[in-house]
Amino acid sequence: MNSMLTKNQQKTICSQLGNVKLQLLYKASIHGFTGAAFHQRCDNHCPTVSVGYNTSGYVFGGYTKQPFCQSGQFVHDDQAFLFTFSGEKLHKYPVTSPIYAVKMIGNSGPYFGEALVLVNGNQAVVYSDPGTYYNFNAADMHGNDLKLTECEVYEVEERTELEKPWRTIVWESGKRKELMDNIRSYKPMVSSVSQVQVLLIGAVGAGKSSFFNSINSVFRGHVTSQAIAGSSTTSLTTQFRTYSVKSGREGKPLPIILCDTMGLEESTGAGLDIDDISCILKGHLPDRYQFNPSAPLQSEASSYRKCPRLKDKIHCVAYVMDACKISIMATKVQEKLDAIRRKVNLMGIPQLVLLTKVDEACPLVMKDVRNVYQSGYIKEMMQEASGQLGVPLSCIVPVKNYSEELELDTNTDILLLSAIIQMLRFADNYFDEISDKFSNIETKE
């Protein structure tokens, strides 16, 4: 059976449910638009995603963790939701009365409360009554078109398989020490620069500030939190901050500075301003510059650094992306990232991607972070990030930030330190380009 859900639509639904895949159980055009055909194929299977397609082109349906049957009773499900697609974007409508989430009716297909029924009364039609245990707008859900062209039901299956490791990484305490020593001893290739400056860019909540806190924790020897981080719909970072990491509580600063910015937000006039990015990249913005999303920094401002030196400029850009949200990234945020990437490309600054929250995205990685390069799901998310930003897979590094832990973990540290090593290598590429440019000018003279 061929699925009518596109690959991206399936990924979007799965991103709401964890490290899962969809297995098609029932297809009405093949098995019949009847309750009997539906129940024969779908009873006792769970969780499931039911999808309706109508003559107006709408794609909509519902999710339940409960198995279908023909008892005639309502079944409790506090995780049930209805949904509809607008292009590839998913809109969810959670159940409002969980005890009435699903009804088990014999002569119909999937029956969500009294709000939405697919294949109603053994007919290729939809029954729709918004507000009855689910709140939604009928015009948005299905365009008030109740004629079905197709109905599909998928079983939601956990991905339990581990692939052969597709990146080699050594998970040993000795490797952790080696990475830390390499970072401590690193020296930029240009004598006028003592510390590489890496700019962290990402959507609100992606984990930019948490990444600095995590790196700081590794070198402090315990979990710490210097940069403001947490859960919020708007950026918790309101200033341009340049964070220097010290090797130990009273140790020397490391040869890398992590520059934190406001998070990217979907709405215009909110979050990081695209024009401020150019000022940051060129080294015009001072530490602790207070962002104003509605107006970029003007060159006449007293805090504006008019003649930045090479050490003030950004030497590498790291896009921070939440592995749980790649498939459902807001279009406006995607457009802002594209605009930023074009600016960075024009300036010849190397770029990489930090894929955060890989443990939340994949249960196999949550169980053991060493599974990160054996998880097919994480690899898919990295490939999707590669496609969205137009960077090679080799420029994408998965990490797990410290968020709820009180003690350090060797394997988490190795992932974090490996990301810093990549940043330093990319900065070397930047300095190589600078040196080549100066050499060519001298040769011509």
Task: Describe what is shown at a glance.
The chain is of the alpha+beta class. The chain has helices at residues 7-17, 28-31, 35-42, 138-142, 173-185, 208-220, 274-282, 331-346, 358-361, 363-367, 376-389, 410-444, and strands at residues 20-27, 48-54, 59-64, 74-75, 81-86, 89-94, 102-103, 111-112, 116-118, 126-128, 148-158, 196-202, 239-246, 253-260, 289-290, 316-322, 351-356, 396-398. The longest helix has 35 residues, at 410-444.
Radius of gyration: 26 Å
Q: Pairing-aware structural class of the strands and helices?
A: alpha+beta
Average pLDDT figure: 88
Distance between the termini: 69 Å
Give the low-pLDDT segments: 230-235, 440-445
In one word, what is the shape? elongated
Sequence of secondary-structure elements: HEHHEEEEEEEEEHEHEHEEHEEHEHHHEH
Share of helical residues: 25-40%
Strand content: 15-25%
Number of strands: 18
* Strand line-up of the largest beta sheet: 15-13-14-12-16-17-18
Number of helices in the DSSP assignment:
12
Largest sheet: number of strands, sense, barrel closure = 7 strands, mixed
